Structures are given as structure tokens and as C-alpha cells.
Amino acid sequence: MKNKGLSKVDLIFESIDVREVLTKAFAMTSEEIIQQILESGLKGRGGAGFPTGLKWKYTAAEKEPEKYIVCNADEGEPGTFKDREILDKVSYKVYGGMAIAGKAMGAKKGFIYLRGEYRFLLPQLYVELHKFHKLIREIGYDFNIEYRMGSGAYICGEESALFESIEGFRGEPRNKPPYPTTSGLFYKPTSINNVETLVTAIMIMKMGGAEYVKLGTKDSRGSKVFSISGDTPIPGIFELELGMGVQEFVNEFGDGDTKAVQVGGASGFCVPRKKFGETMIGFEGVPTGGSMKLFNSSRSMYNVLHNYLEFFTEESCGQCTPCRVGCQQLLLGIEKVKKGEAKSTYLNELVKLADTMKVASKCGLGQSVGNAFRSIVENFREEVIY
Amino acid sequence: MITLKINDHQVQVKEGTIVLDAAKGLGLNIPTLCNHQDLCVAGNCRVCVVEQKGARTLIASCATPASEGMEIFTNSLKVRNARKHIVELLLSEHRADCTKCYKNQNCELQTLANEYSFGEHIFLDLVAGQPYNIDRSSPSFSKDDSKCIRCQRCVRTCSELQHVSAIAVANKGSHQKISSFHDRPMSHVVCTNCGQCVNRCPTGALTEKTYIDQVWDAIYDPEKHVVVQTAPAVRVALGEDLGYDPGQRVTGKMVSALRQLGFDSVLDTDFTADLTIIEEGTELLTRLRKVLVEGDKKVALPMFTSCSPGWIKFIEHKYPHMLSNLSTCKSPQQMFGALAKTFYAEKRKIDPSKVVSVSIMPCTAKKFEADRPEMRSSGYKDIDFVLTTRELAVMIKQAGIDFRTLEESTYDSFMGASTGAAVIFGATGGVMEAALRTAYEIVTGRSVPFKNLDIIPVRGMQGVKEAAIKIEGTKEEWKFLEGAELKVAIAHGLVNANKLTKAVSTGKASYHFIEIMACPGGCIGGGGQPIPTNIDIRKKRMEAIYVEDTGMPIRKSHENPEIVAIYKEFLVEPNGHKSHELLHTHYQQRESY
After folding, report:
1. What is the mean pLDDT of residues A266-276?
2. Per residue in A14-45, is it b (16+ CB within 10 Å) or e — as a string?
3. Residue B473 CB-density burial (10 A; 0-12 exposed, 13-18 middle, 19+ buried)
4. Which of A81, B193, B341, B481 could lock onto B352 through a cystine, CB 3.0 to 4.6 A?
5. Are B102 and B204 in contact (CB under 8 A)?
6. CB of B49 within 8 Å of any CB in chain A?
């Protein structure tokens, strides 16, 4: 794979004339819009990385007259704070992206599920939303967006749990299949996209899929907004072209003593220093929804892992066995090993358990607990034990 | 049709068939826990995971529909390892107090543990040393969260089958638990004590409150005269707990067993079921006369039956403005209790304070009913102890009785004689059928116009049933009913009861008489019946009930000779002074949460 090195870009936060882009998009057919997105190679920016064009295509193919566009703004992954910034700075582009998605899929209604902790953004978001609704009426198009608030549960960022929450039920993931594209919000075909994905979509409509595809690599097209935190002299939000290695990233953002980078938040992977050079950031290496946490040599990786496991033990919805009990076992297990109350070889059992959680849990939460667990235990075994 | 491969065997199934059932068709058993035939798919215990070729993760076979070309492996190493882990995880959060547990040897988790988790446990015990509380506030059942494995069968039962939602999932992650409104005790929420959750709990987290020891104490107390009554639905289900297939009638053996256990008198709730028909039928006809002839606006129609204590508590909570529509008749159990310590004691010349009245019921709500303050009209607690069908089976086992080889015998007298009309109380529609057999004859002097007295339209498993009977050729005193069409409805399972009651409450439907049973299938599907339960088992029990009816020499309540006698000797007349004192009751409004 080709390492393109690190380069900053400005697409997401760039000011654009939404009226112009929307007018252009609304003049296109559904197939033409979806074709542009497919061509761009855009993958979902929430972290899972499902090809956005396919998601739109599947939803568009559904015959059901009532469909929904849902914007997932329940940004809960530890270390991720880019969606807040996007909504704060360019919410009009989010609304525009939703309207284009609506046009592409034949949906007239959009919902934005906003993280409970971001409630303070609402007044300004409503001002912008009002302007947007006015604009869309002027263009002569019918699309309406409503906000729905989360209440602080991490699991409600999982798409089907998010639907349950909007519908007024307990936020618990549903069985899949059926997938949201056939049966999503209110059991209607639904395209659920991350905030950044929708903004990227409107930029693709502006510049054209063929232009966008020039950015990034084969597996990771375009650019991405990163939330950078931890032991770095310049924490914050940076939009970078995809296709860089962890080494280039650390060279730019590290403090000279970086021992590990947690890519993708608590549900992501821990990359140790010795693997910086060989690891790409993106779908060819370690994927991320934007969270990049740097740790220097003053940090105990046991504490890092302990913190993540506490988080998952708390934030598992609790319905499925591997996740509900598995998280508790992993947490208690490393505590016992640390205290010397369990043999260090017990870690091997726990790694096996993490593997079971990965294949047997009901949703992405339980399935990804093993990522951080495995990568920290394997790379920092001594720190976990001693 | 869909073709798929399971463990390299090709199989064809109908579209929509889940992988679990497709495997079953090949004789492959995949273990399950949260799955239950009566309930919607949950897919949350993950015990049933199987491997699908090409899939990133294992899939829950209970929640995944078979698709064309799918290749499934139910027993690969990956599957076995995951399943073992899952069973071990469940055991680690379950207070495995097996030898002390009421569900010992009747626990689905224990069965799985036998298969997957012998030897040392892999994982740390999460419950050892942790404090736990057992909610014993309900007189009907106990709720022990430390044994709960969060399969949510109870939650789904309470909302899907019963529309009560007294219990729901609270909190998340490691704090997740099954709880009630504001974590109140079960005695202080909308719980109807129906016990359907108890019937479906795979572990010992929900169990009926047992009164077995108290009953043994009474039996061995020489001072006490212990009478026992058995409900109609018990005789067609008890066998299941004693090694018989579902649908076997064990009436005669059950009577013998009760006698061997040491009860002083073995009597039949069917007797008071017949009595209920006379009282309730008369009440209905009186209500009709008051409304139709006297134009009395205070009299409420339709009249609801009042035999099911789960239903009574449900209406008290959810439709308190309709309490006047409830028949004032006590349930057969409570009529029996009131008579046992008055009429029976008098007749047998026993001090009523020495009479201990025990009832064997298919029901957990009956335990609550017996505890109601209204149920002391004999001057004593009318029913002292209520045992479920399951508890009776336990007593029979405890006494070392070889049930299969028992001779059959018949009930004692007085209050042991019954009719076919009484026995069908055990199935949904039965009370209605029995009431119609009698009421029609009172009014017209003729039998109901149905072949063999079988009123087929009110029978069966349909959630809400309706029927209409045209009344013709009335006797002189019932002339006002000439040509009238008596409209009746029947609902079983509180979710259906709710639909019907709502339709009546909002004026969308109108009837004269409505039978409601809280449990699916009526009492044969009661919360105190043998575990497991499912629609096939309930159908078999129901068939057995109707066979029992057909085989009875007398099939109309008003022809029961003991009923004729009790009115002559004691009660004087239906709905008379004495009846009102002993056999009728009133109801109370309850909170709606």
C-alpha cells in the first residue's frame, strides 16, 4: 500500500453556497446522485466504514413509499469530538447533505439524533435549521428535518439502538437482518449516516465524485476529520487526507515520547511504537471514526485498558450475554491479575473470551471490546501484569 | 421454498423459517435460553449461535431467517467454544445455589451447564459474596434477581401476552436488571400475580411462593380437619410433572394421591364451579331484567365473569371505572372456601376454626386471591393455603407415591359432585359454555340448541371469540327476552382481555356477557401449571378438558344433585341473602402503575 504521507485539507469546514449545490443536486436523478457517491468511494465516517453509496443504493431500491434519513450525531466514542465541531461550525452543510440523501433515496423526512451532552448546541442549530427549511422551500423542494435528543447512553449511537431510542423505547440494538436499509426507523427503509459522512456527501456533490476520489488511497478515499487528544502539544480537530501511516501522524502530533496511539477510541486498536512504521491509518490498517489518542511513556497502559473496560462495563446495554457479562469478566480479570490474585496466564483465557465476544455479541459494541483488549494485552502484557 | 445446507446436509424450508427451526427439521437440536415459542424473538442470550459460512461473526439461529444458499454449521469448534463461554458467563452471574433451589432439576441453565460446563469454571464468580435481595412481597411468587440471567422472557411475557408490563428492563451494562416501576416491591405495582412469567423463567429467578410445608404441618396436626379442593384444569396437567405426556387426564389417580397424602376430605372445585354458574347465571338474568324491563340505569352491562383473580386485579388497576360490570360472584375457589368453613363444617359437625381449607390450583394469582381481605366471609380466612399444580406434584414425590400404579378413586361428598359444565371452566370459553347451558334452559326450559350441548363457537384458542344466541320460546316469566339475541364474547390472555375491555369501554363493541381468563388458553395455561408451556401443550390440555366433559354423566350445572341439595338445605335461593353473604364480593380501585 502506498503511504501518501500527511497532508492537511479543508473540505468539511470550507464555506460553500449550499443553495447552489442543492439546486445542482435536485436537478439530478436519484441514480445520478448515488452514482457520484459510489464513484467517490466514500465510506461511512462514524467508524464502521460501510460504503455510503451502497447504503444509499439499497435504501433507494426499497419500494416502501415512506423512508427516513437519519443523521447519527450521538458522538459517544471516547476521544471523538469532531461531530460537535462540525455541527457547531457548518450545520447547514449537514442539513444539505441530508436533503441530498433524501433526494437520492426518495425520503421526505430526516431526523438528527443529537448526543445528550450536546444539548447546549441546540439553540444555534435551530436557527440554522430554520434558515435551511426556508431555503429548501425557496428552491421548491420538500424535505423536513427534526432533532431528537439522546440521553447519554453510548449504545444509542449503534444504529438500531438509536432507532429504538427515537421511537421512545429503551435503546437496545435489534437483531440483524433486517438491516436499516430495509427496516430501520419505525421499521421503514432508512439510511443512517454519520454527521461527517453527510457533510462529505454534499462536498462530493459540489466537486464531483471523480474529483474526490483523487484524495486518499484505494481502500480509504478522501479526507477525514480527526479528533486528536492525549499526550500531544496540539490537541484538537484536524482534517487530514487519508493514506498516512501512524508514524507520520506521530511525527506531526506526538510530543517526542509517544509510546502508543489508540486509533478509533475505546472500541479501536492500540498501536505500539514498534508498529508505528508499518501501520496505516484507514481501512487498509487501523480504521477510525476520528478518535486519535496519544500516550507517552508516563502512561500506564493497564490504566488505559482498565478505563476502557470500566467504560464498556457501564455502557453495554446489557441485553446480550457476551457483552454484559464478558465486559465485567475482562475488567475483574485484569484487576485480579494485577493484584496477583489470578495467574498471569489467566490473561490468555481473557483473550479467548474477548475473541468470543467479537464473534458472539449482538452488536458492534460487544464485538469491538476485544479490539482494545487484545491489542493492549498483546503489546503491553508486562504493564498489564506487573 | 429456500434451500440451505446445515452441517453439510441440504434442507428445504419455507421462506421466513429461522435457522433454529430449519435445524430442528434435520433432527439437530440447538440449545436456547431466551427463545420461547410463545414470545417474540429476542436473540439476546446468544446460546444458540451457529456458524454461517462467509459471515464475519457467528449468528443467533433463533433470530436469523434462513436464506438461499446459506451454509450453516451448528457444532463447529468455533461454535462450541463460543457456546461454552456463553454458558460459563451466564453461570458466573447466576447465584448457583442449586441444591437449595426450588427449580433444581427443572432449570434450563442447569441443563445447559450439564452439557457445556463441567469441571472447574473458567471465569470469576461475579455473585459470590455480593448482597442480594429476594422480593417476597407478593403472596404468589418470589423474585430473586441473583438468579436472573436477563433473558427477558418474563419481560416479554408481561408485555406481549399480558399487556401488564409490571416488570421491565432497568439500567444498563453490569447494572442491568429486571425491575418494576421505581423498583417498587411486586406487591405494590400493577402485577396481576398471573404467574405467566414464573411459567417461562428458565431459572429459579421467578418461582411461585410455596406453602407445601404449611400444608404438611396442617395434615399432621391431629387437631385440624384438612379439606382439599382441586380446580378443573389441574387434572389435565398434573400428569406432566409426574412423567406423563401432555393431555393425559389423571383425575382418579390424583384423588387417590390426595387421600394418601393425608387430606381428611378430598373435594372438588368443580362443585363450586357449578354453583358459580347458578349464581352468575342468575345475576346475569337479573341484570338483563333490570336493564330491559325496569330500565334501571345503574345496572351495568355487559357483565364480566369474575373467576380469574389475575383478571380481577387487572381490571382493578387498568379499568377501575368498569368494576360495576364485574359479576359480584366470588370465584369457585373462594365460594368453596366460604362454604367449607360454614355449610361443610356444620354438616360434618366440625368446629370451623379447626378446618384447614387447601386448594390445588393451576394458578399463582389464586394465592393472592385467598389473601384478599374480602375473602373472610366465613369469619375465618376462607382458604388457608393455595398450592399450584406443580406444588402438588412436589408433595406427591415427597410422599414417595408411585403415581402410575395408583388405583383411581372418586371425590368425597358432600361438595365433591360435579358436572361436565364445571370441568370446562378450565379452558377458555368454558365458563361461557357452562353458563349458556344453564341460562338458556332457565329461560326457555329447553337445552341449548347445539349438538351434544357442545357450544363450538365459544371454544378454541382464538384470542377474542364472539358468539350470539337467539332466545326463542321463552317461559312466561322471561317473556321480555323473547326473540332477543344474547351477545357474548370471550377473551383469554390479558393482552386480549385488554383489547376486548377497551373496545367495550370506548363503545366500539357491545355485548351482554363476557368471559375473561387472565392466562393464555384459560386455566389450563395458568401460571401454576407444569413447566414448560407452549401452544401445543395447552391445546392438548384443552382437548383433555373437553373429553372429560363429554364423559361426565351430567353436563349441566343446575342438574348437579349436590347443587340442588345445597339450595334446599342451606342457601335457599340463587342470589339470596345467604348467597350474598358468602358467595358474593366487591372490588376495589387500584393504582395504575
Report:
1. 97
2. eebebeebbeebbebeeeebbbbbbbbbbbbb
3. exposed
4. B341
5. yes
6. yes
Q: Is B121-207 assigned to CATH 3.30.70.20?
A: yes
Mean pLDDT (whole number) for A147-153: 96
SS3 content of chain B, % helix, strand, coil (to 5): 45, 15, 45
Rounded to two decimals, what is the model's pTM?
0.95
- For chain B of 593 residues, list the mean pLDDT of each consecutive stretch of 10: 96 96 96 96 97 96 97 97 97 94 95 88 92 95 96 98 96 96 96 98 97 98 97 98 97 98 97 97 95 92 97 98 97 97 96 97 98 96 98 98 97 94 97 96 94 95 96 93 95 98 96 97 98 97 97 96 96 96 96 90
Fold of B281-328+428-534+551-559+569-582: Fe-only Hydrogenase (Larger Subunit); Chain L, domain 3 (3.40.950)
Write down the domain spans for chain B.
2-75, 121-207, 281-328+428-534+551-559+569-582
Decide if B172 and A317 are in contact by the 8 Å CB cutoff: yes
Q: Which residues in chain A have their CB less than 8 angstroms from residue B149's CB?
A: 321
From chain B residues 226-255, the ones with a CB under 8 A of any chain A CB are none
Residues of the domain holding A349? 301-385
Asked if B156 reaches chain A (Cβ–Cβ under 8 Å), the answer is no
Average pLDDT, integer, range A88-110: 97
- Residues A203 and A106 grouped into a single domain: yes
Listed residue (A352, A353, A48, A360) closest to B56, CA to CA: A360
Instruction: Give contacts of B 170-209 with A, CB under 8 A.
Output: 171-176
Residue of B nearest to A360 (CA): B58
pLDDT value at residue A4: 85
Which residue of chain B is at minimal alpha-carbon distance from A314?
Answer: B173
E strand or H helix that includes residue B487: strand B485-492
Q: Which helix (H) or strand (E) holds A295?
A: strand A291-296
Asked if B88 and B122 touch (Cβ cutoff 8 Å), the reply is yes
Per-residue pLDDT band at A2 (split at 50, 70, 90): low
CA distance A193 to chain B (A): 22
Q: Report which secondary-structure segment, H or E, holds B386.
A: strand B385-388
Q: Which of B49, B60, B168 sits opposite A175 (nearest CB)?
A: B60
The total number of structural domains in chain A stands at 3
CB B358 within 8 Å of CB B404: no
Coil, strand, or helix at residue A249? helix
* B126–A329 C-beta distance less than 8 A: yes
Residues in A lying within 8 Å of B, measured between beta carbons: 153, 155, 170, 172, 175, 177, 312-322, 324-329, 332-333, 336, 342, 349, 352-353, 356, 358-362, 367
User: b/e map of A185-218 (b: 16 or more CB within 10 Å)?
Assistant: beebbbbbbbbbbbbbbbbbbbbebeebbebbbe
Q: Which of B530, B551, B260 is nearest to B405 (CA)?
A: B260
The answer to whether B307 contacts chain A (CB < 8 Å) is no
Q: In chain A, which residues have their Cβ closer than 8 Å to the Cβ of B173?
A: 312-318, 324, 327
pLDDT at B118: 78
Q: Hey, which residues of B are catalytic here?
A: 280, 283, 307, 327, 366, 369, 374, 523
Q: Is the pLDDT of residue A47 over 90?
A: no
Q: Give the chain B residue nearest A364 (alpha carbons).
A: B57
The cell numbers describing B483, all together, are: 326473540
Question: Which residue, among A325, A331, A361, A362, would best test binding to B if mutated, counting the most B CBs under 10 Å from its CB?
Answer: A325
* φ, ψ of residue A362 in degrees (nearest 5): -75, -35
Nearest CB partner across the interface for B46, out of A333, A342, A360: A360
Residue A1 in this model has a pLDDT that exceeds 70 = no
Alpha helix positions (H), B11-76:
19-25
